[in-house]
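Key idea: predict the complex, not the pieces.
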Amino acid sequence: MDILTWTYIIVGITFALYIVIAIVTRADTTKEFYVAGSSVSPLANGMATAADWMSAASFISMAGLISFMGYDGSVYLMGWTGGYVLLALLLAPYLRKFGKFTVPDFVGDRYYSQVARMVAVVAALFVSFTYVAGQMRGVGIVFSRFLEVDINTGVIIGMVIVLFYAVLGGMKGITYTQVAQYCVLIFAYMVPAIFISLQITGNPIPQLGFGAQTSDGIYLLDKLDGLLLELGFTAYTVGSKSTIDIFFITAALMVGTAGLPHVIVRFFTVPKVRDARKSAGYALIFIAILYTTAPALGAFGIYNMIQTVNKAPTNALPAWVDNWSKTGLISIDDRNGDGIVQYHASAEINELKIDKDIMVLANPEIAQLPNWVIALVAAGGLAAALSTAAGLLLVISSAISHDLLKKGIAPNITEKNELIAARLAAVGAVVVAGYFGIHPPGFVAEVVAFAFGLAASSFFPIIIMGIFSKRMNKEGAVAGMVAGLAFTLSYIIYFKFISPESNTPENWWLGISPEGIGTLGMLINFIISIIISRFTPAPPSEVQELVENIRIPKGAGEAGGVH
Amino acid sequence: MTTKSMKLYWKKNLQYLAILLSIWFLASFGMGILFVDQLNVYKMGGFKLGFWFAQQGSIYVFVILIFVYVYLMNRLDKSFEVEEI
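Result:
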């Protein structure tokens, strides 16, 4: 059977599976819609969190990104996993004990302030919308590459599927589809990785093959260092970014991860505090499987690329190069007309252009795997994009129906009407996300990377202080949030939009790039909020009691029911 | 739960956090970033040690840390009788 038929069959089966799960697990109450009735097992929640977290970018782009960055790519590996330690130790158990439905819920109650709640709603909506637009675009791109349909048609098909299970099932439906999506995506990622590792190093475990010898007895990484130096690049295992920048970017990604509302809210769905702790551990295991494989794939990818394409005659290139030149992801321009492809760091000599996404997408073909594996990669990419999109849409819909309506302008709304409002908000959010997927504003890609900086400089410090400092009051929290956000936003806007030509290390403050500035924003938030809170009245005694209460696990079951 | 035992429970919790987060910092920011060049002198199989921590080792340490935390806290909850039934 050809690739296209296989892709239709496998993608069709996975979509049918998601729809069946959605029908079986539909939500009947707001508690089921927002937090799946707090009845998800820690293991299932771990898988769902992993799928929720790993987006189209993790699945399709990350390995390729690391291919071209080498050691510098470590910022993504450490940054997007280390945040789970912070989540598990500093946030998840306490927020679970608090036992409400959303992040703005916690901010509003802990800081006894509608202003703080609304700032949190706006921040949650902003972060989630920028993120979700990228996911819908990802769905469209996978469709267009593998199913040969128009990108826009792909976005619309994706919208209909997400609409179906997010609107019908709410958090409950999303959770169990995410479990299925995790299984699809990890299988699709690991099968080609194992075969490629076998091919290059003879070791079936990519994490070990990464440090093993190639057929000529030389270690893969040593060989790669040598090849890249020869071609004018820096060595693979040594970075070119400054240490301070690596440090700050890694910290911003870690802290940002721990501050993202769609990740935090997953820990509201388990029954007990100890389940929240354990489930963060499971989530990180499931994420680590992909995140420890990605750097291996990155190294295999760039090694393979140099070995098979560099210095190859232009009339005898491997078949996958021809196949993928049609998509524009790889292009060869024999400028000096010698009939040989040259890959080089210098733009003047280089004749080969490669898009980073090809390292994952073309892998099965490079490794000459059967057609059904290629189809599987398509289904995996779709699973990664859809699962993240659904989690974000739920944050958006609950921010509107719960925080804005129920806790804001319409406190007397009935349970039934709130559920209808939540569903309508989900429909609205899907339509907006789809619109941005079809008409992507130029700045989406830029902004998604900065969603982390913004989450790091706004949510993370005030949630931490809300738990670990009884003295922290609303004045401190609001001032800290505003200061952290304003600082981070203006640094990013200056270097990315006002004066992009000056976005070079010499002009950066302390040598910190806009990607890493969220770390400094976070520190500013902490400092400002502590100072302001010392000069303003302590929080009321019932709030101090609330803090005492969330610090001990006992009684979480009941707290979840009180609403 | 009395105020006194509540205070003790919280103090113990903060101690665990301080120890575990120090290891977290050391495994990633320490071994993978600040001391990466010094560690890269040593090799483990085909890996330079600092590079290995940055792209593999730190992630394994993170996973272990969370499960150690789960174990320690469950034990602490039991000894202070604040665990959920």
